[in-house]
Amino acid sequence: MIVGKQKPIEETWAMVKDFSRVLVFGCNTCVAVCHEGGNKEAQILASLMRMKATQEGLSLEIRDSGIERQCEHEFFESAEKDIEWADAVLSLACGVGVQFMVKRYPEILVYPGLDTCFLGDVEKNGLFTESCQACGKCVLAETAGICPVSRCAKRVLNGPCGGSNKGACEINKDLPCAWQLIVDRLEALGRLADYERLAPIKDWSTERAGGPRKLIHEEFMK
Amino acid sequence: MRIKTLKRLLPRVGVDPARVEMFNLSSAMGPRWAEICNEFTERIRQLGPSPIRAALGRGGKGGTAS
User: Fold this and answer.
1) Where are the beta strands (DSSP E) in chain A?
2) Could you tell me if B62 lies within 8 Å of chain A, comparing CB atoms?
3) What stretches of A38-162 show up as alpha helix (H) in DSSP?
4) Does residue B8 fall inside a structural domain?
5) Were A178 and a residue from A6, A151, A197, B27 both cysteine, which residue would form a disulfide, CB within 3.0 to 4.6 Å?
6) CB pairs under 8 A between A and B
């Protein structure tokens, strides 16, 4: 899922405080899991902003609302009235959701309430870790299901590098060396021979460096 | 956990986190409930009026909810 972190309230407040009608708008899927941008977080942030407005003697009206996903047209119907009411929307979606709203509502100002951080998993309650960089050409079949593109600081494809030290990465002793994890897992699976196969030079054209990407399913297009 | 989060957030809008506490009590704990009420009332008295109330007293009308 996409992991994000709420921007400091001082920053988001500066974006919206000069408007008359502000909608704090939650996105209740990915960023709700990391407790940063869901509909509940939108309620809390709207409430905090009302406290701020009262203390600063401002008369702006702040409402909250939210939908399941801000990156798909079909979810917006229930919130249409709230969005049309607002002068400005503070979206708590990831950057995808914010931009989707900008495309859908060209007349309405939409501001980002989150910093979108990474694609990650819920390692345990309250801990979210990066595990995919959407490079467009998955190498997990060759690396025992552990991604060196996202989990090795150098994105080394034939690792480990010389900076691997007692299972940790040289950039941070608390960061496991992805290649140590790969070798350990191959060994545990009895497939250490796979480690001897050199990975070819990776085709990075499918990654972000090749420009914004698209996936097209013509059969679903109307 | 939610109260912990709230205590982290409230100072960002100028509200002392000591103004919020949560206690878990069973319905059979009347005396303890009364004790907590007294303690908390005393704490709030010591902290004085909240900045929100003070702002409202100054004629602040912002942040309307609907």
Assistant:
1) 2-6, 21-27, 61-67, 88-91, 109-112, 114-124, 127-132, 168-169, 172-176
2) yes
3) 39-55, 80-85, 95-104, 148-151
4) yes
5) A151
6) 68
Distance in angstroms (rounded) separating the CA atoms of residues A44 and A24: 9
pLDDT tens digits for range A117-161: 999 999 999 999 999 999 999 999 999 999 999 999 999 999 999
Residue B60: inside a domain, yes or no? no
CATH tag for A2-118 (out of 1.10.1740, 2.60.40, 3.40.1350, 3.40.50): 3.40.50
Residue-wise pLDDT tens digits, A137-148 = 999 999 999 999
Question: Where are the alpha helices (H) located in A113-203, listed in sequence order?
Answer: 148-151, 178-188
Residues A166 and A176: beta-carbon distance below 8 Å: no
Residues in chain A within 8 Å Cβ distance of B58: 57
Closest Cβ–Cβ partner in B5, B60, B64 for A55: B60
Q: Model ipTM?
A: 0.79
CA pair distance B39, B21, nearest whole angstrom: 11
Amino acid of residue A28? N
The tens digit of pLDDT for each residue in B45-54 reads: 999 999 998 8
Encoded tokens for A38: 């869901």
Domain membership flag for residue B26:
yes
